[in-house]
Design a protein that fits this description.
Layout (H helix, E strand, L loop, with lengths): L4 H4 L29 E3 L5 E3 L20 E4 L2 E6 L2 E6 L31 E3 L3 H9 L11 E5 L37 H11 L2 H7 L2 E4 L8 E5 L3 H5 L9 E5 L11 H4 L4 E6 L2 E2 L3 E3 L4 H10 L14 H10 L3 E2 L2 H4 L2 E3 L4 H14 L10 E6 L5 H20 L5 E4 L5 H9 L1 E5 L9 H8 L3 E5 L4 E2 L12 E3 L6 H9 L2 H16 L3 H7 L1 H11 L2 H9 L7 H7 L5
Parallel strand pairs: 7-8, 7-9, 9-10, 10-11, 11-15, 16-17, 16-18, 18-19, 19-21
Antiparallel strand pairs: 1-2, 3-4, 4-5, 5-6, 12-20, 13-14
Helix pairs in contact: 4-17, 10-13, 10-16
C-alpha cells in the first residue's frame, strides 16, 4: 500500500515484492481472486460467474458436503452409525407444507429446497443396505460442536484508543512468533480483525456453534497464521495433533500471494485478505498490474483495448491473451476478501472529526487534485504517466483548477486539499489499493481510481458511478472521465453522499466487528469448518489427535 498520503510523503511504506517463479504451482503470483469473479462475454462486457455476487464478498463455497445429509433432488440419505435409511420426500403441490423434517446438517442454501409436507420413509432391502455400507465415502464424521482457535500475540496492534473494543482475548503465548506480521505497523490490523471476529458473539450466533480462544498454538483446533509462514507452522515438529490453519495475507496487492501449493494443503481451511481482483486470471509471468500496463502499451492502436473504458470482461480477456492462466476453482474457493481496511477502521472517525461536514461538491474550488510521492520502480513509471497526462489536460482546459503535488506535505495541508477538491486521482502504489482511496471519500471528494470496476473489497467502496469513478490505468481516458464528471456536479454530489456512509459502517473495531456484511462473510467461510475439522482430526498421525477427540466427547 501506500501509507496515508501525509505520512507516505516522507516515503515510508513496505516495498512491493512478487514471487520469482510465477508459473510454478508452489511459487506462483497468486492463487485466486477472493472477490466475486466475472467472465468475459463476446462483446467484452462483464458477466457474473458462479463465484459470487457483486457485493464485494467471496461466496466461499463449501469444499466438503454436509456431514449428516447429502441431498439429491427430493431424496435424502441419512447415515447414522452403520445403517443407512433413505427418506423420500414427494414434491408437494404448490402451496403445500411439510412438517417433521430435521434441518440438522443442512447448509443455508439447502433450506430453500425443503418442502413442508409429511415425509414418507422406506428402509432399503438388506442387500441394498449392505451395498450402501460397503460403498466408499458414504461414512462421514459428525460435525464437531465447537472449535478452539489461536492467534499469535505479535499481531496485536499498537494504535491506542483507535483499537479499543469490546473484550477480545489477548494472546500471550509466543511459541510461534514466526506466524505473526514480523513488523509492527498497520499490517497487524488484518490478523487482529480476524482474531476479534472469531471471538465475536455475532459470528458465533450466526454459525450456531462456539468458537473459543485457546492460548496454545499446538493444541488449538484452528490457528491463525501469516500466509507466508503457513508451511513453517504445518512442518513445526512441536505440533502434537492435526490442526486447521487460517492464513492471513498482509500484503497490499490485489493478486493472491499465497501459492497454489499452500492452498492445496487440506489443513489450510482458507486464506483471507482485504482487497482483491474480481477476475481469476492472475497466474502471469509478471505481476498482474505490470502485465496489464505492458499489454495496453502494446495495443495503443487496437480498437478493442487502445481506447475507451476497460470493464472487467475486457481486462480478463486481455490477461488471457497475454498467457495468464485462471486460478483453479478449488484454490479460488479458499480465498476470501473479508477484512475491512485498517485506515477506515482505525482512523475513519478521526478524519470525519477533523473534516467535520464535507463541503458540497459545487462549493469546492479545486476541480482535480493529485498528491503523492513519485518514487520506486513501477510506482514511479505509473505515476509519472499520470503527471504527464494531467499536465497535458491542464494546457487544454485553462478553465479547470488543478492541485498537483509530488512533494512532501503535512497532514493539515493534505487534509485541506482533499476538503476543497471535487475529483481526486488515486493511482496505484506498491499495491493497487491505496490509503488515499479512503481518505478521498472521508474528506468528501470523489475518487478516480484505475480499474475500480475490477477490484473487490468487503467495504463496497469500489462501485463506479455509485461510490467512485473508473479510469484506465494508462490514463488514456482520463480527460474524458474528468470532463464528463465536471459537467454533472449533481452526479458528483450523489457519489459523495453515497461513499461516506459506506465507510462509516466500519469506524472503529466495535462497529466493524458487528457489521452485517463482515459477519456474514466470515460465517460463509466457516460454514463447514466443523465438518472439515472432524474429518481432518479423524485421520491417523500427529500424536494424540484421536485421544483429544475422545476427551472432548466428540470421538470418531
Amino acid at each position: 500500500m501506500e501509507e496515508p498520503a501525509a505520512e507516505q510523503a516522507s516515503s515510508r511504506g513496505q516495498g512491493f515484492t512478487h514471487p520469482s517463479s510465477a508459473l510454478e504451482d508452489s511459487k506462483d503470483t497468486g492463487a485466486g481472486s477472493a472477490g466475486p469473479g466475472r467472465t468475459a462475454s463476446e462483446d467484452g462486457k462483464a458477466l457474473p460467474d458462479e463465484r459470487g455476487s457483486d457485493n464485494g464478498l467471496t461466496q466461499g463455497e463449501n469444499t466438503t458436503r454436509d456431514a449428516l445429509s447429502i441431498r439429491s433432488n427430493h431424496s435424502e440419505k441419512t447415515y447414522s452409525g452403520k445403517e443407512a435409511v433413505t427418506t423420500l420426500t414427494p414434491k408437494p403441490a404448490e402451496g403445500a407444507t411439510t412438517a417433521g423434517m430435521s434441518l440438522v446438517g443442512m447448509r443455508p442454501h439447502h433450506l430453500g429446497e425443503l418442502q413442508r409436507a409429511p415425509a414418507a420413509t422406506t428402509t432399503p432391502a438388506p442387500d441394498a443396505a449392505k451395498k450402501q455400507r460397503a460403498a466408499p465415502g458414504l461414512r462421514r464424521q459428525p460435525a464437531l460442536k465447537h472449535l478452539t482457535f489461536f492467534t499469535p500475540p505479535g499481531f496485536w496492534p499498537s494504535c491506542g484508543d483507535a483499537c479499543k473494543s469490546r473484550h477480545i482475548p489477548k494472546p500471550k503465548n509466543h511459541a510461534i512468533d514466526y506466524c505473526d506480521a514480523q513488523k509492527s505497523g498497520y499490517k497487524n490490523h488484518y490478523a487482529y480483525f480476524v482474531h476479534g471476529m472469531l471471538a465475536s458473539k455475532e459470528l458465533q450466533d450466526q454459525l450456531g456453534w462456539e468458537l473459543q480462544f485457546l492460548d496454545d498454538p499446538f493444541h488449538a483446533d484452528l490457528v491463525v497464521c501469516a500466509y507466508s509462514q503457513i508451511n513453517d507452522f504445518l512442518n513445526d515438529k512441536r505440533r502434537v495433533r492435526r490442526q486447521l490453519v487460517l492464513g492471513v495475507e498482509t500484503g497490499d496487492s490485489a493478486y493472491v500471494q499465497t501459492s497454489l501449493g499452500t492452498l492445496s494443503r487440506h489443513e489450510v481451511l482458507a486464506v483471507v485478505k482485504h482487497h482483491s481482483w474480481r477476475f481469476r486470471h492472475e497466474r502471469c509471468k509478471h505481476p498482474v498490474k505490470e502485465t496489464i500496463l505492458d499489454a495496453l502499451a502494446q495495443r495503443k492502436g487496437d480498437k478493442d483495448f487502445g481506447q475507451g473504458p476497460l470493464p472487467l470482461g475486457k481486462v480478463a480477456a486481455l490477461l488471457s491473451a497475454e498467457g495468464c492462466r485462471a486460478i483453479p476453482e478449488e484454490s479460488s474457493r479458499k480465498v476470501h476478501t473479508i477484512i475491512p481496511s485498517w485506515l477506515t477502521v482505525q482512523k475513519g472517525a478521526w478524519w470525519v472529526k477533523h473534516v467535520k461536514h464535507p463541503k458540497p461538491i459545487a462549493e469546492r474550488p479545486v476541480d482535480v487534485s493529485f498528491v503523492g510521492a513519485v518514487v520506486g520502480d513501477f510506482r514511479k513509471e505509473h505515476r509519472e504517466g499520470l503527471l504527464k497526462a494531467l499536465k497535458g489536460i491542464g494546457k487544454r482546459h485553462r478553465d479547470w483548477t488543478f492541485h498537483i503535488s509530488s512533494s512532501k506535505v503535512n497532514e493539515y495541508q493534505y487534509r485541506d486539499v482533499l476538503a476543497n477538491t471535487k475529483l481526486f486521482v488515486s493511482p496505484w502504489g506498491y499495491g493497487e489499493w491505496s490509503g488515499k482511496d479512503e481518505e478521498t471519500m472521508l474528506a468528501g471528494a470523489v475518487l478516480l481510481k484505475p480499474l475500480a470496476s475490477c477490484m473487490s473489497h468487503v467495504m463496497p467502496m469500489y462501485k463506479p458511478g455509485e461510490t467512485c469513478l473508473d479510469v484506465r490505468p494508462d490514463w488514456r481516458d482520463l480527460e474524458v472521465v474528468i470532463e464528463e464528471a465536471l459537467s454533472d456536479t449533481d452526479r458528483l454530489q450523489r457519489i459523495q453522499q453515497a461513499a461516506l456512509p459506506i465507510l462509516k459502517q466500519f469506524f472503529g473495531y466495535d462497529k466493524a466487528l458487528q457489521n452485517a456484511q463482515a459477519v456474514s462473510a466470515f460465517a460463509r467461510l466457516l460454514s463447514n469448518a466443523t465438518t472439515i475439522a472432524a474429518e481432518e482430526f479423524a485421520k491417523p498421525g500427529r500424536g494424540n489427535a484421536h485421544a483429544m477427540l475422545k476427551d472432548r466427547g466428540e470421538g470418531i
